Amino acid sequence: VDMSEEDKSYSYPTPFPVLCVVGAGNASHVFIPLFASQGYTVDVYAGYGDEAERLLKATETQPTGIHVCDRRNPGKKREFSGKPRMISKNPQDVIPKADAIIMALPSFAFRSVFEEIKPHLKPHTIIYGMPGQGGLDLVAREVFGKIIARGKLTVAGIIPMPLNCRILEFGKKVDFASLKDSYELAAIPSDQAAPAAKLLSRILRRNVQPLSHFAAIALHASNPNIHPARLYGLFSDHREGKVYKENPLFYETFDEKSAEWAQKVSDERIKVWREIVRKMKIGEVNEVPQLKEYVMAIYGDQIHDKSSLASVFSTNDGFKGFRCPMKRVGDGWTLNFHNRYFIEDIPEGFCVYKGIADLAGVKTPAIDKILGFFQKFMNFEFIKDGKLQGRDVGRTKAPQAFGITTLDEYINGTSRISQSKL
C-alpha cells in the first residue's frame, strides 16, 4: 500500500492519530522523536522496571527531547529532536488515548504487555507488533479474543523490523542508521490488514503491503531462516565442549555450504505456504518470498554482489561486523547456546516453521536436521520422531504450543484460543 494512495473506505483519525510507543529500547528512542518531529502526538508506556522514571528524568533535563544522529544518508547526515507528550509506567495514563500503539519489543514480551494494556484500550485501536513473527497473532488471540471478535481491536504484525539504531545516551541521544524501505503486514482480523497497512504507511512514510494471513508472516524469510542455517553451515561438526581458535565474522564469511542450507530452509518454507494456499484457498503463492529475493529487496544497493545467495550476505554493508554467537573459553571460543540466535530464533521462529509444516502435512528434512542437531546442545526436545512433538514444544511459539492440532484451527481461528475468550 503506497502512502500516496487514497482509500475512501477508511477514515484516519483527524488531524493526526495519537501514537503510543511502548518501551524505552533502541527502536523507541528513534520512534519517539521521529513521530513527534512529524507532527504526531506521542505518548510512551514504559512499564518495565524503572524505564519510565529514567526516560522522564532525561527528557526533563533535555527540554528538546531525544536527540537523533541521523546517518541514513552518509553523504548528508542530519540531526533532529523530539519529545513525547507524556511518559508513564501506568497503562491507564496513556493507553486510553492511543489510536495506534507501536510495540517494537522482543517477542517474549508481547504477552505481558498485552495483558497490561488490555483493560485500557479504546475501541478501534490498532496495535502494531514488531517483529510480526514469534507467535504475535497466537498470543493476541489468547489475550484479546473477545475484543477482536467484536471488531473493536486490530492487531497487526510487520516484517522486517523497521530500524537499525542504538542508544548513545539513555533518554537523550540515539544513533539512527537506517529505516528500511518497504514492509509487509498481516492482521487479525485479516480483513483489517489493508487499513492497518494504510495507516502504518502514513506513519512511517514508507510502502506497506498487506498480506492475506498471519501465516504468511510466520513463514516469511527472516532471521529464523538465516541464523540456524548459517550456524549449521559453520558448526555442523560441533560437539559438547569443543573450543575454536577464533570467533568468525557471521556474514562476511558466509560460504556456499551455509547458503545451501539456507536455501533448503527457504524452499521448505515456500512449499509449506503453497500447500496452505492450495488447501485453504487463501492468499497468493508470492506472498512468502524466497530468501535471496527478500534480502535484496530490503538492502538494495548496500549489497555489492547480488549473483548468489552467499554473496548477498557476504558483500552486504548492512551485515558488516557481526560475529558468531560465541563466548570466551580460556584462549579460545565456544558456542553460546544462551545467545538470542539460539534461544529466540529457534523456539520462536524456526520451530514455528516446523509446526506449521506439520499442520500442513509437508515434510521438512532440512529444518528437521538443523533443529534436531541444535536442540540437544540447548537441552531441549522440540522435534521427536520427525514431528514437533517433543517435551518442550510448550516453550515454542508454534501453533502446537497453543493447543492447535489442525490446519483449519490455525488458519480459521477455530481453536480453543479464540473460543475460550468468546
Provide mean pLDDT, rounded.
92
Give, in spatial order, the strands making up the sheet with the most strands: 5-2-1-6-7-8-11-12
Structural class: alpha/beta
What gyration radius follows from the Cα positions, in whole Å? 21 Å
Main pleated sheet:
8 strands, mixed
Instruction: Give the SSE order as H and E letters.
Output: EHEHEEEHEHEHEEEEHEHHHHHEEHHHHH
Oligomer: single chain
Helix content: 25-40%
Question: Judging from the principal axes of the Cα atoms, what is the shape?
Answer: globular
Q: What is the number of E strands?
A: 14
How far apart are the first and last residues' alpha carbons, in Å? 32 Å
Estimated share of beta-strand residues: 15-25%
Topology record:
Blueprint: E1 18-22, H1 26-37, E2 41-45, H2 51-61, E3 66-70, E4 78-82, E5 86-88, H3 91-94, E6 100-104, H4 110-117, E7 125-130, H5 136-149, E8 153-159, E9 163-169, E10 173-179, E11 182-188, H6 193-204, E12 207-210, H7 214-218, H8 223-235, H9 256-280, H10 291-299, H11 309-314, E13 326-329, E14 332-335, H12 340-343, H13 345-360, H14 365-375, H15 407-412, H16 416-419
Parallel strand pairs: 1-2, 1-6, 2-5, 3-10, 6-7, 7-8, 11-12
Antiparallel strand pairs: 3-4, 8-11, 9-10, 13-14
Helix pairs in contact: 4-5, 8-9, 8-13, 9-13
